[in-house]
Amino acid sequence: MTRVLLIAPQWIGDAVMAQPLVALLADRGASITALGLPGVAPVLRAMPGVDEVIEAPFAHGRLDLALRRRLAAQLRGRGFERAYVLGNNVKSRLVPWLARIPRRIGHLGEARGLLLTDRVGPAGGQAIKAAEPMALSPVSCRLPRTAQGHRPDMRAHYAALAQIAADEAVPEPVLSVAPHVADAARQCFGLPTRWIALCPGAEYGPAKQWPTAHYAALAALAQQAGYAVALLGAPRDRAVGAEIASAAPGSANLCGSTRMEEAIALLATCSGAVSNDSGLMHIAAALGRPTLGLYGSTDPRHTPPAAHRSATLWLQLDCSPCFERTCPFGHLNCLRQITPRMAWDELGRLMAAESASAG
């Protein structure tokens, strides 16, 4: 059995999209230890194929060389044969290099792959197939652009490190929560069995955030259909959650009230989820819940939700994707023109499809 150290990405969504790489390595008999930031660790613990999770409390933007040396010293005698480095910066390669792991595999990234033994090019060095969620194209949209110049599908980008064959499909990201753990979380937060999760936050910036008024209108539509509504997000999302809950009375604002492991467990129980392009969207989709991702400044072909029971709404206007944190033109039409009714109708289709398959 090959002992593998996985250096996880620092963002939650990216960590979820790395699960196909974990699955490919586990299928080959690897024993996988994942090293990640505390905020990402609960996601790693929910990943099939990860045997152990080590938390690395590195400060954002800092080298933390002393801490990296200590971690490397702890890992040095554990017999790791390979390290898969999913970050693109030199800092992410320091621990496996200092731990003297013989093979250190990663993308070229910064400094042309410095400290790596196996380097994969920007496009993975090969064409890799990956399933995509259904992307909706409202009639006002132009036809999809050509693939030239697009950022790669991140699932395939990470899976390329496993050196799979060019015609081999990349598996979908999967997360798993024990049913009794998920149900206990739902009951702890006072949610019924029929409830909709709304995830209005996006750490990257407001150009990824569907308007709060739209979320409130969507919450009202869900309540009219007999669903409870809960808002999930980080502490920084409390204010926007409170605004939505105020405009849609009866909605539970849980933004900032859950630890990440609790949010994961809750999402495992929801009837459906609607989210900006965020980590919670990726978690809900990887848990197999009917999930609708709302895209504005970003591209669902680059960071798609797992395709189990998901879809995306993306208008693909002339100005999108811009990948900016704030709208360069100040109108945010790429998200404002996605109406609450459009979102509710599509989520309803996803939930109906799940009910039909279960029946």
TrEMBL record:
GO terms for molecular function: ADP-heptose-lipopolysaccharide heptosyltransferase activity. Its EC number is 2.4.99.24. The keyword Repeat does not apply. It catalyses: an L-alpha-D-Hep-(1->5)-[alpha-Kdo-(2->4)]-alpha-Kdo-(2->6)-lipid A + ADP-L-glycero-beta-D-manno-heptose = an L-alpha-D-Hep-(1->3)-L-alpha-D-Hep-(1->5)-[alpha-Kdo-(2->4)]-alpha-Kdo-(2->6)-lipid A + ADP + H(+). Keywords: Glycosyltransferase, Transferase. GO terms for cellular component: cytosol. One of its GO terms (biological process) is lipopolysaccharide core region biosynthetic process. SUPFAM superfamilies: UDP-Glycosyltransferase/glycogen phosphorylase. It comes from the Bacteria. Belongs to the glycosyltransferase 9 family. This is lipopolysaccharide heptosyltransferase II. It comes from Thiomonas bhubaneswarensis.
